[in-house]
Amino acid sequence: MKLTVLKSTIAGVALAAAASAAWADKANDTLRVAFTKELENVDSYFNSSREGVVLQRAVWDGLIYRDPVTNEYKGNLATEWEWIDDTTIEFKLREGVTFHDGSDFTADDVVFTVNYVADEANGVKTQRNVNWMKSAEKIDDYTVRIMLKDKFPAAIEFLSGPVSMYPSDYYAEAGPEGMGLKPVGTGPYKVVSVVPGQHFVLEKNEAYHDSPKGQPTVTNVDIRTIPDVNTQMAELFSGTLDLIWQVPADQAEKLAETGQFTVSNESTMRVGYLGMDASGRSGDTPFKDIRVRKAVNHAINRGELVEALLKGQSQVISTPCFPSQFGCDVDAAVSYDYDPEKAKELLAEAGYPDGFTTDFYAYRDREYAEAISSYLNAVGIDTNFKMLQYSALRELNMKGETPISFQTWGSYSVNDASAMVSQFFKHGSLDDARDDETLEYLNIADSATDPEVRKENYSKAIKRITEQAFWAPMFSYNTNYVTTKEVEYTPTADEVLRFTTVTWN
Q1: Lowest-confidence region among 36-40, 108-112, 212-216, 273-277
Q2: Which of 12, 41, 75, 344 has the smallest C-beta neighbourhood within 10 Å, fewest atoms?
Q3: Are 183 and 191 in contact (CB under 8 A)?
């Protein structure tokens, strides 16, 4: 099947506006940014979107910071740390740090935050980010210990990413709903205005501590949710936006051709994949049959998708994790070449010589999902394509009601295979395989302190997952950033838009 690429065109009115556009709100020192996806809750523990990660890194801080270029761990809210034993880490905290509401950051805030998010009853959205922690205890005002439920060598990596510290008194009263409406952190930017899901205004934290994140340069950041990329581009031309990101390759190329914008492309850890209901959570689905799952894997021309649609630094992926993540053994994975005839043979062997019809879900990248749907249709898997909001699709996933879906996962930019493989294959609410052998390997890999033992068992899990074709890994993503010429921004490979590194030209 030849993939047809539909190239979007830039509206003439936008081109006409370009000549007179005010290229940036430099005069007001306000960076105007578009988010494509609606953020369900600003509280970083109660959303799981990339937009949420961006705000989390701007508004809150963690105990540790991982440099996105060197991958070196540096102290942030903690100045030093040491392992007391295999399940206890002691932290010395940075003194003189204040939250945006003026309250002091102390050990009480760490103890409250850890104990709150570690309690499954409080419903943190992505349990994988926090469920390895047991509790925290205060030694003195600026010394705290975090206790783990079991050995978890990736603890430092998680503490440098999705685990942020919250003000104990404020959060105890406000909770997730209040934090979503009036966020309070220690980060480089404070939130001064929120229209839930639609509009967020940030202001430079003049009292920001000596953090490895760096001091913010731009005074204000004005973020609006604009789902349609063409509308974003029109606003970029008219001068009402300064930065857009996650721009599809074709549109990014066209914007670059105008010579009026700076277009940057950077790789990411985000992996696109097809999840299939191998265990029958959604009913007596054909995807319980390994031959059907293998047929799906053979039906799709991943290389053509990357070349025609994603472009940039994207690559074909054969693993249920990103290759740079610790333990993501590419050589252990069973890969499936594009072979539509083989796919048809496997479907016939499974009892579907004439194919079958199934609901097929996605929440983003309609063009990619529709192309994948076309490949499936071509071998006899007729798809009833359903495009949903992310939160709606995630709810269906957690209930086990999606026979097959196209989704993505960016691992919260955590550079460890556990952030992806263990998120989806340890019998949690998002695990449609429910495979005991895979679970056994991952339990060992997640808790072993010997790196070689971890690697060995992640390799076994990856081999098992791909042999059984529980997923159909597709490709890695890259991100296109487009800014006006007045804006200077260098993206990093972890898919985190960092406002602290934005400057004016």
Answers
A1: 36-40
A2: 12
A3: yes
CB 504 within 8 A of CB 371: no
**pLDDT higher than 90, residue 268:** yes
Strand pairing partners for 146? 89, 136
Strand partners, 416: 326
pLDDT number for residue 402: 98
**In Å, what is the CA distance from 352 to each residue of 45, 267, 296, 301, 344?**
43, 39, 13, 21, 9
DSSP 241-271: -SEEES--HHHHHHHHHTTSEEEEEEEEEEE
Helix, strand, coil percent content, the chain, rounded in steps of 5? 35, 25, 40
Which tokens hold the place of 177? 């709903």
Residue with tokens 């006899």: 380
* Same-domain check for residues 491 and 474: no
Work out whether the CA dihedral 469, 407, 46, 58 comes out positive or negative: positive
Coil/strand/helix, residue 42:
coil
Q: What is the pTM of this model?
A: 0.88
Domain encompassing residue 453: 268-479
pLDDT at 155 (0 to 100): 98
Q: If you count them, how many residues does the chain have? A: 505
Identify whether residues 500 and 372 lie together within a single domain: no
User: Do residues 389 and 349 share a domain?
Assistant: yes
Task: Give the integer Cα–Cα distance in Å for 419 and 442.
Answer: 11
